[in-house]
From TrEMBL:
GO molecular function: carboxypeptidase activity
Family: Belongs to the peptidase M28 family. M28B subfamily.
Protein name: Vacuolar protein sorting-associated protein 70
Every Peptidase M28 domain range: 413-513
Assigned keywords, A-Z: Membrane, Transmembrane, Transmembrane helix
PANTHER family xref list: N-ACETYLATED-ALPHA-LINKED ACIDIC DIPEPTIDASE (PTHR10404), VACUOLAR PROTEIN SORTING-ASSOCIATED PROTEIN 70 (PTHR10404:SF46)
Organism of provenance: Maudiozyma barnettii
Transferrin receptor-like dimerisation domain residues: 689-796
Matches recorded under SUPFAM superfamilies: PA domain, Transferrin receptor-like dimerisation domain, Zn-dependent exopeptidases
Length: 797
């Protein structure tokens, strides 16, 4: 029997799993039948050995695989355990932080994110303390009133701002202006010159010897020499002229003598030209000064508080109530001397005019006694206020000569960037003066206050303060002649202002008496009242500006801020505006010699504000209001007071509609629909909206735990949306075409009063159409309002 082949298997094949597996695949074990006889004893041993080797090899391989797998699985289990423990630890740590971390509000979180180091309360306190600890207004006032020209005023303002650590910039424009060369007025009788008016004030010559032009003049008054008889026309209002015409007084072709007051100088010239005047003289009547007059026993300045009879009020005759700014570049800025310009026709008078003092108008007016009818009352000694006209042999020779040229003006813009990119607050005054040296009330008081506000803001910046919204302090140039500086700026930056500006605060002619006066958009009413309650009056901690304000009104029921603004920011762009000042109370205050050399530092220091605490009060109040409008996370506006005021005016105008058009049922229905729609807006929608605003504001100051982060994010989004609504509200009343005959004024609710040129008017479009008894215009204006009120209701909803 053949011997089985002996297969040699190396020993090292059992040492590794791979070799054994290979051997098992190539030499599988298959048991053979056992032989009955003659079998070699060595054969079973070989197979047994092989079997033994195969069994041992398989057992070793399985053990190795299982062991390795266990190690791998165990490693994965250890990693999962580690991650689980790490997550548990992190959760416990965060829970610990959440449990013990301080609860914060959105307002505080927002300031912390932007590295603002001061709370709102600290901002207010530091600002007020800074202005109360020191008062630099006396220094600024003295400096401004001793300046000899506009260039020195520019350099002084820029220098003071830079000392405070700011980097103001200059915006330069090139408007068309006029400058006086000669003015003369002579009285002629029977062909002889019997009186020659000097047109110069009895002011110490050493203080005005450096003045370029000492005589009185009117900016933008056209050149001309007129020799004619004359007539007294009182204030030159439409009613005055109607009275003259009703009494068949001949007024055409004559020189019209007008007294200052009631309406603007430009309006007087516009009316005089309309009624056929050949030229005009304008004087200040002491009667209009109230109780403080020489007739009532007061001494005249400089010995006393009454008006010096030689004072002359310089003024502008441009029609600023229709088209402010450079009359040759309406609706576009005069950024270059070489721009193409338009004719100023229709924006300035065509007849010459000159201002004259009460002292020098007297001999001229005395010639009218006994002629014509009596027209009003006054305090010109010996004059019985007969209108005239004068005899043909009694005439006035009037000469006005001016040069017209392109001049450079410079606005100063001091900008403090805020955290938010929109909602800018602008506070401004002008520094150009009618007289150099001089101009204490106008413009130096406002300029000095503006620098004091800058000092308070500088102190805040040194403490790490970052304003929530951008604040701009602006010093206008060219405002006296025609509001040129501000108008050019508006036309230059109209798009940016529409998108970003929230409010405009004006400090023009800031201190001319002791009676506080506010003319403001009612959106700011609540903010104004709170700021007044937080401002000490003249440094007295026991008496606030608000209490003084209420005391002056004489009635707790009188609205404190009921006068609408006449700001061009409001009327052209819909930027909510306000104007604040201390003006003459007409009872005890010294008389302000407006635009005169008597408007001096001595007058201010001796008779109006000796310690300059009124200046300090207005600086604290207006600066605090600026901060309150800029530092609140939610705009400090209230819709209800505004709409309530407009609704009251609508009711008044609807009565006029019924009176003027008594049988026009269609117009009555339209006006009643507008009134009803506005009623819903004033007494329902605005009330609900203001409550939502207040609730949202309170929520922004509500402390929340750290895990309310998502809720704070939603709250922040709601704040942004609400701010956009509040910022857009007043701009919804801006129309593209503007008001009839004065398209530069584009706001339907607020504009300068067309009939006095001094105050603001509510619903000017409807008012002007009613005065003209133009039925189609009344209907058009009412339909515009109806659409605007509907859009506003949608916005508030």
């Amino acid at each position: 029997m053949a011997q089985p082949t002996n297969t040699n298997i190396p020993q090292d094949t059992v040492e590794t799993e791979s070799t054994l597996l290979l051997a098992r695949e190539t030499i599988p074990y298959t048991p053979s039948p056992r032989p009955m006889s003659g079998r070699s004893q060595s054969t079973p041993d070989l197979f047994d050995s092989l079997n033994s080797i195969g069994r041992r090899a398989r057992s070793s391989t399985v053990s190795s695989v299982v062991s390795t797998s266990i190690e791998i699985v165990q490693g994965h289990l250890d990693k999962r355990k580690f991650m689980f423990l790490l997550a548990i630890s992190l959760f416990i740590y965060l829970a610990f932080l959440a449990a013990f971390a301080p609860r914060t509000s959105l307002a505080r979180d927002f300031r912390r994110w932007h590295n603002s180091k001061l709370t709102t309360s600290e901002v207010y306190r530091i600002f007020l303390d800074t202005l109360q600890e020191d008062n630099f207004i006396h220094h600024h006032m003295k400096s401004y009133t001793e300046i000899d020209n506009g260039a020195e005023s520019l350099n002084y303002t820029m220098g003071e701002m830079k000392i405070l650590g700011f980097e103001p910039k200059i915006e330069t424009y090139y408007p068309w202006v006029t400058s006086p060369e000669a003015t003369d007025v002579q009285l002629i009788k029977d062909g002889k010159y019997v009186f020659n008016a000097s047109l110069i004030e009895d002011f110490p010559s050493k203080q005005i010897e450096s003045a370029k032009f000492k005589k009185g003049y009117h900016a933008y008054s056209p050149n001309g020499e007129v020799k004619s008889s004359y007539i007294y026309c009182n204030y030159g209002t439409l009613n005055d002229y109607k009275t003259l015409l009703d009494h068949n007084i001949p007024i055409e072709g004559k020189i019209h003598i007008l007294r200052d007051g009631l309406i603007s100088t430009g309006m007087k010239l516009k009316n005089a030209e309309l009624y056929g005047a050949s030229s005009a003289l304008i004087y200040n009547d002491p009667y209009d000064d109230g109780l403080v007059t020489k007739k009532n026993g007061f001494k005249t300045f400089p010995e006393g508080p009454a008006r010096n009879p030689s004072s002359i009020k310089r003024d502008s005759v441009e029609y600023m109530f229709d088209f402010p700014g450079d009359p040759t570049s309406p609706n576009f800025p005069s950024k270059s001397k070489d721009i193409e310009r338009l004719s100023p026709a229709g924006k300035i008078p065509r007849i010459p005019s000159i201002p004259i003092s009460a002292k020098e108008i007297r001999p001229i007016l005395l010639e009218l006694n006994g002629k014509g009818i009596k027209l009003g009352n006054g305090d010109i000694e010996g004059f019985d206020y007969f209108c005239g006209p004068s005899d043909d042999k009694v005439q006035i020779n009037l000469l006005n000569k001016q040069t017209h040229f392109i001049s450079e003006i410079n606005d100063i813009i001091l900008e403090i960037p805020g955290i938010f990119s929109s909602g800018d607050i602008i506070i401004a005054s002008h520094r150009d003066s009618w007289v150099y040296p001089g101009g204490a009330a106008n413009p130096s008081s406002g300029s000095a206050i503006l620098l004091e506000i800058a000092r308070g803001l500088s102190k805040l910046r040194s403490k790490g303060w970052i304003p929530l919204r951008t604040i701009k302090l602006v010093s206008w140039d060219g405002e006296s002649a025609a509001k040129i500086g501000s108008t050019e700026f508006i036309e230059d930056y109209a798009s940016d202002l529409k998108n970003n500006a929230l409010a405009y605060i004006d400090l023009d002619n800031a201190i001319s008496g002791t009676e506080f006066h506010c003319a403001a958009n009612k959106l700011m009413e609540n903010a104004i009242i709170i700021a007044a309650k937080s401002t000490s009056f003249k440094g007295n901690e026991e008496w606030t500006l608000y209490e003084e304000w209420k005391n002056e009104t004489g009635s707790k029921y009188k609205q404190l801020c009921d006068d609408p603004p006449s700001s061009i920011f409001q009327s052209h762009l819909g930027i909510s505006s306000a104007s604040f000042k201390f003006r003459n109370n007409m009872k005890t205050d010294a008389i302000n010699h407006a635009n005169s050399f008597f408007d001096s530092h001595e007058w201010m220091e001796h008779f109006v504000d000796p310690d300059f605490r009124l200046h300090g009060t207005l600086a604290s109040f207006s600066g605090l209001l600026t901060l309150m409008l800029g530092e609140k996370e939610l705009h400090f506006f209230s819709i209800h007071p505004y709409m309530k005021q407009v609704h009251k005016r609508t009711v008044e105008l609807n009565r006029l509609i019924n009176d003027i058009f008594p049988h026009d049922n269609e117009l009555h229905h339209l006006s009643q629909t507008v009134e009803a729609r506005l009623g819903l807006l004033a007494w329902q929608d605005s009330v609900i909206f203001d409550k939502k605003v207040e609730k949202l504001y309170q929520e922004s100051f509500t402390d929340m735990p750290i895990w309310f982060g998502f809720k704070k994010l939603k709250l922040f989004i709601s704040l942004q949306r609400m701010n956009k609504k509040l910022r857009s509200f007043d701009k919804l009343f801006v129309t593209h075409l503007g008001l009839d005959d004065r398209e530069w004024m584009k706001h339907s609710l607020l504009a300068p009063n067309k009939y006095d040129g001094l105050t603001g008017d509510i619903l000017p479009g409807v008012h002007e159409a009613l005065v003209d008894m133009d039925r189609s215009r009344v209907s058009k204006e009412l339909n515009i309002l109806l659409e605007q009120f509907e859009n506003v209701r949608k916005l508030l909803a």
